[in-house]
Specification:
Helix content: 55-70%
Mean pLDDT: 96
Largest sheet: 4 strands, mixed
CATH class of the largest domain: Mainly Alpha
Strand content: 5-15%
CATH architecture of the largest domain: Up-down Bundle
Shape: globular
Radius of gyration: 17 Å
Number of strands: 4
Low-confidence stretches: none
CATH topology of the largest domain: Glutathione S-transferase Yfyf (Class Pi), Chain A, domain 2
Length: 215
């Protein structure tokens, strides 16, 4: 049995969960795991990060590694195209989304979401780096209707969980949505949100955020 460990507010946990639901895999959730450097957590996920996957007495960490494993182990209902170049384009999109957009914007999260003191130098550096990542992303997105073309891929699972978060962070930090330069993005995100897997994960995320706020 596959067990996905993490928590519903984590966009990377949600990326993997959407992929597993779209592939119609049987799996369990452990939604109580949090990033930690405690020994019991490090024994399950070496960097102390989530998500991680437990399977047959082994564990796998890093969301992209987990998704690549699932694609290899369960090739039915693939989330990558057959053509080698198109498969590479999907991986390229994910790299742009995560390395050059989400992880750049993540440097703002402490200020905009968790009340850390504003740092103008940091904001300026993020804005500059984010512009580069979004420029690269614009050269590859298609929204036809999916981000890589006519087929749903893992890049859509990543885009759905990352881009709205980046849009919110930049709106709070700079007073405007830095993703507004991606025409068709709102329609695209709304379209994905109608799919059962995406809708289920999004509803659970909202419920977890509401519970955290209430606590």
């Amino acid at each position: 049995m596959l067990r996905l460990c993490g928590y519903p507010i984590s966009n990377y946990f949600n990326k993997v969960r959407i992929a597993m639901l779209e592939k119609r895999l049987e799996f369990e959730l452990d939604p109580t795991c949090r990033p930690s450097q405690k020994e019991d957590v490090l024994a399950r996920t070496p960097m102390g990060k989530v998500p991680f996957l437990e399977l047959d007495g082994a564990t796998l960490a890093e969301s992209q590694v987990i998704c690549e494993y699932l694609e290899d182990a369960f090739p039915q209902r693939p989330l990558y195209p057959r053509d080698p170049l198109e498969r590479a384009r999907v991986r390229e999109l994910i790299a742009f989304l995560e390395l050059h957009v989400e992880l750049v914007a993540r440097r703002l999260y402490g200020q905009v979401f968790f009340g850390q003191p504003a740092d103008e130098a940091l904001k300026q550096a993020v804005e500059k780096d984010l512009a580069k990542g979004l420029r690269a992303l614009r050269t590859r997105v298609k929204f036809a209707p999916f981000i890589a073309g006519s087929e749903l891929t893992l890049a859509d699972c990543a885009a759905f969980v990352h881009l709205p978060l980046v849009a919110l962070a930049t709106r709070l930090a700079y007073g405007e949505d830095q993703l507004a330069a991606l025409p068709g993005l709102k329609t695209y995100i709304a379209m994905l949100g109608e799919r059962p897997a995406f809708r289920t994960v999004n509803e659970d995320r909202k419920a977890a955020q509401a519970a955290m706020k209430a606590a």
